[in-house]
C-alpha cells in the first residue's frame, strides 16, 4: 500500500514538471538518435566533416569504432556479400566513411547484414568485409565495437563484449585508410564526411540505410579490444586515445558535439533531419539507466518515470491533495465525506460527527496525487496539511487547537465536544478561531 502510494506521488510529480518545464535540472537525463533509414536527399543522417583534417578521421593507425545500437526486428533487411572487397555497402549502413570511386587511400564502413554486424575496409581494388554471427536486431541495446590493426589490416567485430569475428583486411601494402588531407573530390557533399545512420552518397536503394537507435559513439586511435571484455555500463569519458566522442545528449537542435577534447578537434557533426517519418529524431531511449548512486541532485528514471532528488521537495502550497470524483457540486473550503450511494465518489459532509468525513476541498495544494487520470472532471481533496475551511459555531465557538468535525450544515466544520464524541469523525484541528455564526478558519487537516 505504501509502495503504491509512493508511485502515485512520483507520477504526480512528473506531470507537474512536464507541465511547467523545470528551470534547472541538475542531472543529465540523456538522449540517443533514432534513424528511420530514409537514406535519400542527404537527410536522416549525421554528417561529421573530416577534411580539412579532423581527429575523427582515423585509419592512419590502429583504430576502434564503437557505439550502442538498438534496432527492431524486421527493420533492416539489407544483406552483405561477405569476404569480398566493399561487401559492406549493400548492408543497412550504420557508419559510412566511403569515398566515391577508386583508389586514393582507403575507406571503410559498418553495416547490418541480415541483422548482424558487417565491417569492411577497402583500398581501391583491395579490401575485405568481415561478417559477424551475433544477432543485434532484437529490439535490445547492444554495444558494438570494430577494430582494425594497422600493421596487417586485421579486422575484428565485438558484440556486447564478445569477440564475434576477426578476419583479414586484405589491403596489401597500402595500409592508410584515412581520408587524405585536401583530397580533391567531385562529391564534396559526401566524400569528406563520416556519415552516421545512412548511406552517404544517396546512391540508391541497393545501398540501404540504417533504421534504429544509435548512442554513445567513441572513435579511438588504438585497438581497445583484443579479446572478450566487459561491455561499458556508463557513458564513456575521454582519454588520450579518444579522438572523437559523441554522447548524442543534446536533445534538440542540429549540432552534434564531439566531447573528446582531442587536439585539433572538435570533430563536431550536424544532424540532417527529414523524411517520413523524419529522422534522426532525438530519443530518450538510451542504453544506460541512471544508477542509484549517481551524484545527480535530481533525476527522472527513464524506464519507470520515477523521480528522485537528493534534497528536499519545496512546494508552494501547505497541503497534500488528491484528485477525487464528486457526486454533487463542491467548492474550495467545503468539508466533504465519502458518498455511500456513489462508490468512489465524495459529497459535502451533511451530518454532525459523520464518520464518513474525508477532508476539505483544496484551495492551492503543494503536492497533488492521482494526477494521471484527468479525463473526468475532478476536484482536489486535501488529505493533510493546512487549508482554509468553512466553519460554523453551531456547536459553540471554535478556538485554536479545538478538534473539528462535520456539522449539520453541508460542507461546514464545527467544534467537536471532545475526542470521544468525534471518534472516527475527526477532520483536523483549528488553527484560528471562529467566535460566532459562520466563516472561514484555518485548519490543520488530519482526517481520520
Ligand atoms: Ca569506395
Ligand atoms: Ca585526413
Ligand atoms: Ca546519449
Distance between the termini: 17 Å
- The helix tally amounts to 1
Q: Encode the helix/strand succession as letters.
A: HEEEEEEEEEEEEEEEEEEEEEEEEEEEE
> Which overall shape is indicated by the principal axes computed on the Cα atoms?
rod-shaped
The amount of helix comes to: under 10%
Under the CATH scheme, the architecture of the largest domain is Sandwich
Question: What is the CATH top level name of the largest domain?
Answer: Mainly Beta
**How many individual domains?**
2
Compute the number of strand runs.
28
Main sheet properties: 8 strands, antiparallel
Under CATH, the topology of the largest domain is which?
A: Jelly Rolls
Kindly describe this structure.
With 448 residues, the chain is mainly beta. It folds into two domains: 32-283, Jelly Rolls, CATH 2.60.120; 319-445, Head decoration protein D (Virus Head Decoration Protein, Chain: A, Beta Barrel), CATH 2.40.300. It has one helix at residues 2-19; strands spanning 32-36, 45-49, 63-70, 92-97, 107-113, 116-123, 126-135, 141-148, 155-159, 162-167, 193-196, 211-220, 242-246, 255-256, 269-272, 281-283, 298-300, 307-309, 319-326, 335-338, 345-348, 357-361, 367-369, 379-392, 403-406, 413-415, 428-430, 438-445. The strands form four sheets. Strands 1, 3, 8, 9, 10, 12, 13 and 16 form an eight-stranded antiparallel sheet that branches. Strand 8 and strand 9 (155-159) form a beta hairpin. The longest helix has 18 residues, at 2-19. The chain is rod-shaped and about 105 Å long. The chain starts with a helix and ends with a strand. The model is unreliable at 1-28 (pLDDT under 50). One calcium ion (CA) is lined by residues 30-32, 215-216, 247-249, 286.
